[in-house]
Amino acid sequence: MSTIVEANQLVKQYPGSPEPAVRGASFTIQQGEIFGFLGPNGAGKTTSISMLSCLLKPTDGSATVAGFDIIRQSAEVKRRIGLVPQDLALYPTLSARDNLSYFGRIYSLRGSDLRQRVDDALKLVGLSDRAGDAIETFSGGMKRRVNIAAGLLHRPEVLFLDEPTVGVDPQSRNFIFENVESLNQDGLTVLYTTHYMEEAQRLCDRVAIIDQGQIIALDTPKALINSLGGGIIHLGVPPEMPGSLIAEVERLPNVQGVAHKDGKLEITAQHAQHAVIGVIEVFNAADIPITSLEILEPNLETVFLHLTGKRLRD
Amino acid sequence: MIRQILATTWKDLKILLKDSGGLATLFLMPVMFIFVMTLALGGLFSDGGDNPTEILVVNDDTGTIGTQIVEGLRATEGFAVETEWGGAALTRAGAEALIADQERSIAVIIPADFSDTIQQSVFDTPTDETPQKAQIDLVVDPALSSQFVGPVKGTLAGLSQQAFMTGVAPRGIDLFLDQIDQTAGAPLPAEDREALREQALRSTAGGGDTGSVVEVVQMHPAGMEIEQFPNSVQQNVPGWTLFGVFFISQTLATSLLEEKKVGTFRRLLVAPMSRAALLLGKLTPFLIVNLVQIVLMFAVGVFIMPLVGAPKLELGLHPEALIPISLATSLAATGLGLLIAALAKTAEQIGGIGSLLVVTMAALGGVMVPRFVMPDFMQTVGLITPHAWALTAYQDVLVRGYDVARILPEVAALMGFAVVFFGVALWRFRWD
Fold first, then answer.
1. What distance in Å separates the CA atoms of residue B332 and residue A116, rounded to the nearest whole number?
2. A54 interfacial to chain B (CB closer than 8 Å)
3. Nearest CB to A91: which of B10, B264, B270?
4. Which of A8, A89, B12, B32 has its CA 20 to 30 A from that of A141?
5. Does any CB of chain A come closer than 8 Å to the CB of residue B205?
6. Contacts of B270 in chain A (CB under 8 A)
7. How many CB atoms lie within 10 A of CB B197?
8. Is B417 buried (19+), middle (13-18) or exposed (0-12) by CB count in 10 A?
9. Cβ of B276 under 8 Å from any chain A Cβ?
10. Closest to B3 (Cβ–Cβ): which among A93, A105, A150?
11. What is the three-class DSSP state of B294?
12. Which residues of B touch A51 (CB under 8 A)?
């Protein structure tokens, strides 16, 4: 597979903002890949996509899309990308067909070719029977699907999907997943941003976990999850803990690592269910109270929590 | 690029057409104002209703016909004839000075040789020569509307005819009967002669044509500029049309803000479409709506207003001159819309800034109150609005019959407004 997106130390600082929104993001996306940006709201996902789609100029760093520089060759880049923005970027009083026809014309499509592509896009998102209805009469999920269709009309090489499932019902969400998978199978490269770990886990070949403008981990979902072992145990403990007790916990079977901070003990384990019994026994023997206990299953949410100390939806 | 502009234009026209409430506001609001204000303020532009028209009369005629005309004027209902001022008989110079000082608006001057000229032209001019005309000077204030001057002129023409019949025709008939006596070689019997005379007088009493011997010449006192003022339709149709045209600036600004808000602007900026094409496509439909507005509003003035008793809107001697004014005005209005969109961040701000600008400019520009009734200072202040220039240009064409060349300064000023509005708007416009 060849590289279709390459970002080198991308930085974006908005005027008047004390901190950069994106701080030195570097990554590559391979052709035909579904690449995920996973992070909470405000992490810098949309800003990164905006730079790659030539909407924002980077404060520093560089990037290419399909071999074209995003600053010097923005017109070439724009022809090769499709953007499905987080907002429902549609005209509510116009029909689905009118919306898609308009966006198609902006990409210089016309005549029978335009009609065919609009029909194909509507069919792909399952809205052929509602083509003539005004967007404002659609459910949130249906609007999201038209939103995606509008980004596909010109058959881009890379599709940027910015939080495409925000505010949709489970049925429409599944429909969108199937659409993305189907498009990817046809060879479309997808950059998918989300703050839902389930989506990243299900769809993405590789995931960049992003927080406060920085990519803090980048790998396949499986590798990221495996880095946690079998799960994480969170214990509520006194702020002051004897070092010998922590060392004793570290020596327990299945325990891979222990971190103590602010009255919380985070234990990384190969098998969290098994390890937790030994941990409780150690605390009981030392007569140190446990104020809370939480066993976290190994998933991307746990990875994010492990890396940042925050939950994705905080 | 052209296809992208056309696609955007067509898309926005579709959106506008689907917004029936918005369209109703854009079209019905100015129509409503035209109706209400034209009918309500008709009196403001009329000749003063029941008050008699004060006419200064200077009768220098040494004969009798001038006196007959003056007496006729005195006897005419609706006229108040003044032959003296400050206890002294009026002179031509005095009457002109009173008009120049705006003490009075109209004066009738009958020259010293008036009767003599009529007599000479009828009895002493060989048939193969054009008779000399006797002239009545009608000196009027240039600001006086034609509705006011017309009845005075008409009355003078009628009285001239009457005086001609009573003062000149008997002598003419006597001369004619003398001629018959000479030709017959013997005088007619006195009874027959009198019967013929009476018959001739009766037959000429209701007819005859003084047009060839008496001429009423309208003029202005020396030094007073010629200026014509609009009637209520000529004021309110272009005025409230301008209000509607500039009102669209709020709709345009809202449309641009909405594109940004829902994210379609962002989607379009990601497409291979220049910002110029995007803006041109966005502005063109509003320009078209503006032009349609102007055509419809003027059509209301021409065809509908007469049906409700208002004067018909006459389009002047050069209606083609309305086109450059309308184009320049529409450009200024769309520029203002873009400026409002650039300055406002929310729909509420658009409402606030838009209303403030649109209503204030309309008031200053003479839409709500004609500028000619404003104090000089306010008339000067009004020139900072495109409305004032546009309204002046429209009225130059509608009222004063100007052609394209003569309204170019106003059109240039409107284009200047458009350039400034677009320039500041593009400078301040946030694309993200």
1. 41
2. yes
3. B264
4. B12
5. no
6. 53-55, 78, 81, 83
7. 16
8. buried
9. no
10. A105
11. helix
12. none
Residue A20 DSSP class: -
Q: Coil, strand, or helix at residue B80?
A: strand
Q: Which two tokens stand for residue A294?
A: 């939480």
* Maximum distance among all Cα pairs of chain A, rounded to whole angstroms: 80
Outline where DSSP puts E strands in B130-245: 134-140, 214-219
Contact B267 A107 (CB under 8 A): no
Helix residue spans in chain A (DSSP H)? 45-52, 74-80, 96-106, 111-124, 140-150, 170-185, 197-203, 221-226, 243-250, 272-286, 300-308
Instruction: Give the span between the Cα atoms of B134 and B110, in whole angstroms.
Output: 9
Identify the structural domains of chain B with CATH numbers, from first to last: 2-44+231-428 (no CATH), 53-219 (3.40.1710)
pTM of the predicted model, to two decimals? 0.67
Spell out a b/e string for B115-144, using b for 16 or more CB atoms within 10 Å of the CB, else e.
Answer: bbbbbebbeeeeeeeebeebbbbbbbbebb
> What is the rounded distance in angstroms from the CA atom of residue B334 to the CA atom of residue B10?
17
- DSSP letters, B106-144, are EEEEE-TTHHHHHHIIIIIS-TTSPPPPEEEEEEE-TTS
| CATH class of the domain at A3-220 | alpha beta
User: How do the pLDDT tens digits run along chain A, 314 residues long?
Assistant: 699 999 999 999 998 888 899 999 999 999 999 999 998 888 899 999 999 999 999 999 999 999 999 999 999 999 999 999 888 899 999 999 999 999 999 998 989 999 999 999 999 888 999 999 999 999 888 898 899 899 888 889 999 999 888 878 888 888 888 888 988 998 999 999 998 888 888 899 999 999 999 999 899 988 888 887 778 888 888 888 888 888 888 888 888 888 888 788 888 888 888 888 888 888 888 888 888 988 887 888 888 887 887 776 65
Residue of A nearest to B8 (CA): A102
How far apart are the two ends of chain B, measured CA to CA in Å? 21
Q: Measured between alpha carbons, how far is residue B174 from residues A176, B253, B417 in Å?
A: 112, 83, 73
The pair phi, psi for residue B29, each rounded to 5°, is -60, -50
Q: If you count residue pairs, one on A and one on B, with CB atoms under 8 Å apart, how many are there?
A: 71
For chain A, the structural domain boundaries read: 3-220, 229-297
According to CATH, the superfamily of the domain at A229-297 is YebC, transcriptional regulation domain (3.30.70.980)
Q: Identify which of B14, B261, B264 has the shortest CB distance to residue A90.
A: B264
Query: How far is the alpha carbon of A221 from chain B, nearest alpha carbon, in Å?
Result: 30
Quote the minimal CA–CA distance from A51 to chain B in Å. Answer: 10
ipTM higher than threshold 0.85: no
